[in-house]
Amino acid sequence: MLALTLTADLTGVTELRPNDAQEDPYFYTFKVQCTSCRETHPNWVNVNRFESTEMSGSRGEANFVWRCKSCKRESTATIRAPPTAYQHASPPKRQSIIEFDCRGLEFTEFKADGEWEAKGLESTTTFSGIDLQEGEWFDYDEKAGEEVSIKDLKVNEDVIVRLKWGQTEYKGRLISVDSYMNIQLSNTEEFIDNKSTGNLGQVLIRCNNVLWISGAKGVKQEDMAMEG
After folding, report:
1. Share of the chain above pLDDT 90, in %
2. Is 59 in a helix, a strand, or coil?
3. 190 near 172, Cβ under 8 Å?
4. Which residue, among 4, 2, 12, has the nearest Cα to 148 in the 3D structure?
5. CA 210 – CA 123 distance, rounded (Å)
6. Which has the closest alpha carbon to 101: 175, 7, 202, 188?
7. Are 126 and 119 in contact (CB under 8 A)?
8. How far apart are CA 220 and CA 4, in angstroms?
9. Phi first, then psi: what are they for 37, rounded to 5°?
């Protein structure tokens, strides 16, 4: 399963989610990569959880059916449940919004097209038509008498995971993390003693191995070194 995870600084609002109803569906927009040949499709693709496409060979349906132009392999993705609301937290916490059952592909980048909605943190105000393409949004809650905002939106960001032993770190795109801190990464690069040992692709790191996890943006491996 691939999870779309968000981190955002919410002020005065909570329960942020895509406006995703059957009469007005949300189109989740991604770049897609084949897990067989690792070719990344150059164009953005859309996934709608209310539409299904037939798979070849009468193998059923999926919300997204894609054939890699390089290796010709057919891959699919299906959304099993509606999106979960992102809750206000201070400091902001990484939360899973929606999951995709991906077979033979990975979604490597997400673009927050379409409309989102949220609720007032201290009121009953519903904010709809929220545009997050620029990664931020500002408004005013008249019932609460205060300004509200969404800032510093981060989606499936690159992270560094430090293991408890061996001076080992993994750097990659966060795919999913559960409440036990089991972590799944894609496009993963391994570092031992701050030196790259190669690319591992997609990895699953069990919770009992994790010392800490940190955002990778603007961080060099030598900056994360720890005294043993």
Report:
1. 51
2. coil
3. no
4. 12
5. 39
6. 175
7. yes
8. 25
9. -105, -5
Interatomic CA distance for residues 210 and 206, integer angstroms: 7
Q: Cβ(28)–Cβ(46) under 8 Å? A: yes
3-state secondary structure of 165: coil
Q: What is the C-alpha to C-alpha distance for residues 75 and 103, in angstroms, rounded to an integer?
A: 6
| pLDDT for the residue 85 | 96
Give me Rg for the CA atoms of the chain.
Answer: 19
Q: Where are the alpha helices (DSSP H) in 88-223?
A: none
pTM of the full structure: 0.74
Distance, CA of 30 to CA of 2 (rounded, Å): 12
- Ramachandran region of residue 181, left (φ > 0), alpha (ψ -120 to 50) or beta? left
- Partners of 105 in the β-ladder: 34
Q: Which residue reads 């054939």 in tokens? A: 67
Token pair for residue 132?
């997050």
| Those residues with Cβ within 8 angstroms of residue 9's Cβ, 6 or more apart along the chain or in another chain | 92, 149, 150, 151, 152
Tens digit of each residue's pLDDT (9 = 90 or more) over 85-97: 999 998 888 888 9
